[in-house]
Specification:
alpha/beta, 676 residues, 13% strand, single chain, 3 domains
């Protein structure tokens, strides 16, 4: 074997592959065509590319075609499944839990049905760590191993070498014929690689993540790290997003807030740049040590409290200018009521999502609302005021989004720990959760849960590692993403997790040169630029009766679509794709009902697919699919009827909305349900 130049066949293959990437993967091709002279060298045996020479070693221990084929055969015999033991862990909504209970009861009533430990059909994803010369990719595509094959390659020139080794045009064509998609994540660091994977999963499909597989093609630090990060994050990709019950609540709350007034609304538009610095204050454990420094500069900055940090600041004699809230829960209202009783809320402006409970807004003299992205209430009520990007998942994210959107550039984070050091508690010492008599939790939550959720490790702001939870980690990542867009002068004074794009600084090192008293003028200038509304003014132009009619349109069209599915669909993959198309096609005339059903409309399907794709007998799988379709129809039609009832009261201008969305009236399955 020698490092020979390409023969005629090799030249032809390379040209064909270049054309294939140029046409089918233009973004990847733009990266590949920049490599004029790779550092590594292609090793050939005649016209066949068989290895990559890295200098002192070669990438493959033996010729790549045979080695890769054996690797795939070993993988098929013993796949590295990314499986889930039970869909119940996917933070199901109450109505979804009811449906899951029905599914479990159905399987329990038919114990004769053989069920495999992992899906036998409709494997969603193959996460392949390393492309190398690509022979394993061709084999996985030939076997139709999954619906979405994600190829992670940290060394772009390896992928460039593969253009001499395998027929990518044939790979693309074969995949296309099987309804299989190929996605490339090339040249990224481990964190970036996983973000690339996340984008594909969130944009394509989360229903069939269960049963997916990972294949480590070759070993490298980058690929090992990417796989470890994916292992930590994978369960968050399977979480349900957009509860029906939450969407009903947030839509009702928005109606209540927008009927009141006066208030201002923050739109995503250009604002005058502000020179006054901003302190965003979270309630992480490092806030304790930072409180003296916050107090020291309090008259020279705008102070924004986030959620429970309001009580901490007030208890320590620091009065914020703005207070941020995102949540729609009763405990939030009770906490605010307690803070007002103990310290008063005079002079503090509530800045909140339109979806917070109206009782929360009533506690403050001034209110600024913003619309959050991807919520049903935003789709239904927004009057051309663009939603605020980056205002989730947590209140610290919302504070950063509000500050940057309204023109502030110099922003300091205190107590925004996004995690905790191993020796620290989960919140600052003066947080309300540590009060001896505090019991204001949602059902199923409590101090013990807060203390046991820290199961991840991430880099620390001042070095080392800190513990974090999935939602705090998501907050950290999302804040870094918004920072990459806004390019604010972001300083992280929190002794917690590192936030990319934020400059670490110890609280004692902060030096504010802005003159005293600038906050009032800065906030007055912001408020002048906000859209102002008197009571009942905001809702008047909205076509709420049209949304009621959309519920009726949905009911008829959805019934017809399920009827077609019962006749035509043979598996959960087809049914899920059908419902996804239906939702997209009806997004105009059924906007309100589909956004309120939202995530539940799609995530319910996984409750059937989880067991249905494990049924080994094809005929039994089809019988169970038909049974599930009918139950799914009943649940969705019930949700649509509840939505219609609420929207009809809004259209009639009701002062108080009747309770809706309680599952007591759900239709029950009839006797003699079909056996799976």
């Amino acid at each position: 074997m020698a490092n020979a130049g390409a023969g005629p066949h090799g030249d032809s293959l390379f040209r064909r592959n270049c054309a294939a990437f140029r046409a089918r993967q233009p973004t990847v091709w733009a990266l590949l065509e920049t490599f004029a002279e790779p550092d590594s060298r292609l090793v050939r045996d005649g016209d066949t590319a068989v290895n990559i020479d890295l200098g002192e070693v070669r990438l493959y221990p033996k010729p790549a075609p045979d080695w890769s084929r054996a690797q795939v055969e070993a993988h098929v015999a013993d796949p590295d499944h990314i499986g889930f033991s039970d869909p119940a862990h996917c933070n199901l909504s109450p109505i979804s839990r009811r449906l899951l209970a029905e599914v479990r009861d159905h399987f329990a009533a038919h114990p004769q049905v053989a069920v495999a430990p992992a899906p036998v059909v409709d494997v969603g994803y193959g996460f392949v760590f390393g492309v190398g010369l690509g022979h394993h990719v061709a084999e996985l595509v030939r076997r139709a191993a999954c619906r979405y094959l994600i190829l992670v390659e940290p060394v772009p020139e390896f992928l460039r070498h593969s253009l001499h080794a395998v027929d990518w045009e044939e790979i693309f064509s074969t995949a296309e014929g099987q309804g299989m998609e190929l996605h490339f994540v090339v040249g990224a660091d481990p964190e970036g690689s996983v973000l690339g994977i996340e984008r594909v999963v969130f944009l394509r499909n989360q229903t069939f993540l269960d049963g997916s597989f990972a294949l480590m093609h070759y070993l490298s630090w980058e690929l090992r790290q990417a796989r470890e990060i994916l292992n930590r994050k994978i369960k968050t990709y399977y979480l349900s997003r957009g509860f029906f019950e939450d969407e009903l609540l947030m839509t009702g709350n928005t109606y209540g807030n927008l009927r009141g007034g006066p208030f201002h609304v923050i739109g995503h538009k250009p604002y005058v740049e502000q020179k006054t610095p901003v302190f965003i204050v979270g309630s992480g454990p490092s806030l304790d040590a930072a409180l003296p420094q916050i107090a020291k500069w309090a008259d020279r900055v705008v102070i924004i409290s986030c959620g429970s940090s309001l009580g901490i600041l007030l208890k320590n004699g620091i009065r914020p200018h703005l207070h941020i809230e995102n949540e729609n829960t009763e405990p939030l209202v009770k906490n605010l009521q307690d803070f007002k009783a103990a310290h008063g809320l005079d002079g503090i402006t509530l800045v909140a999502s339109t979806s917070v409970r109206p009782e929360a807004g009533a506690l403050f003299d001034r209110r600024w609302f913003y619309f959050r992205t991807h919520l049903s209430c935003t789709a239904i009520f927004n009057r051309g005021l663009r939603p605020l990007p980056g205002a989730a998942p947590l209140v610290a994210n919302a504070a950063f989004a509000v500050a940057t959107a309204t023109g502030f550039r110099d922003i300091y984070l205190f107590g925004v720990d996004c995690g905790r050091r191993a020796e620290d508690g989960h919140h600052a010492g003066d947080a309300i959760y540590y009060d001896a008599d505090y019991d204001n939790y949602l059902e199923g939550e409590g101090l013990e849960l807060l203390e046991t959720e820290f199961t991840r490790t991430v880099p620390g702001n001042f070095g080392g590692e800190v513990l974090t939870t999935w939602y705090l980690d998501m907050s950290r990542v999302d804040m870094a993403a918004l920072q990459s867009i806004t390019r604010a002068n972001l300083v992280n004074c929190s002794n917690g997790a590192r936030i990319d794009g934020a400059r670490p600084m110890a609280p004692a090192a902060v030096n504010i040169t802005a003159p005293p008293g600038g906050a009032a003028a800065a906030l007055a200038l912001v408020e002048q630029q906000l859209a102002a509304f008197a009571p009942d003014e905001f809702l008047a132009p909205l076509d709420l009766p049209g949304h009621v009619a959309g519920c009726d349109t949905f009911a008829a069209a959805f019934d017809a679509e399920v009827d077609r599915a019962l006749e035509e669909d043979t598996g959960f993959w087809e049914f899920e794709r059908r419902m996804s198309r239906f939702r997209s096609e009806r997004a105009g005339d059924c906007l309100a009902v589909l956004t309120i059903l939202g995530g539940t409309f799609m995530s319910m399907i996984r409750l059937g697919a989880f067991g249905g794709t494990r049924i080994t007998d094809p005929a039994a799988r089809r019988r169970f699919l038909r049974h599930f379709m009918e139950r799914y129809r009943a649940y969705c039609q019930w949700m649509a009827a509840e939505t219609r009832a609420m929207l009809a009261e809004m259209a009639a201008g009701a002062d108080r909305l009747s309770p809706v969305g309680r599952a007591d009236d759900l239709p029950q399955p009839g006797p003699g349900a079909a056996a799976p």
